[in-house]
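[Structure tokenization] protein backbone as discrete codes

[Encoding] learned vocabulary of local backbone shapes

[Begin record] amino acids and matching fold tokens:

___
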Amino acid sequence: MWMEPLDQAASVMIILGIAIAGGFAVLFLQRARHAGAADQIRQSLDKHQDYFTYLSAHIDQEGPLMPPPGKLSPAEQSAIQSKAAGVDRNDRRRASG
């Protein structure tokens, strides 16, 4: 079936418009998801600030450190582990530099 050149151009423009709108929708959803995860991590770190103070005060002691109080959700565990890993990397940089 033959289409006029303007009809073909209009079809291509519609398809490209839908693809671009879909791309923006995906980017918006990823941004919202990332912002939600970052907010949850920030809340977990704020909630356990006393534990980080304890770690800072007792990090050089011999023997095991006490775990955080209470049962931790997977998100809280992840936040604490990421904070502890960041502290560990910073300590190594200071020691080597």
In short: Residues 5-47 form the longest helix (43 residues). The chain has three helices and no strands. The helical segments are 5-47, 49-58, 74-96. The radius of gyration is 25 Å.
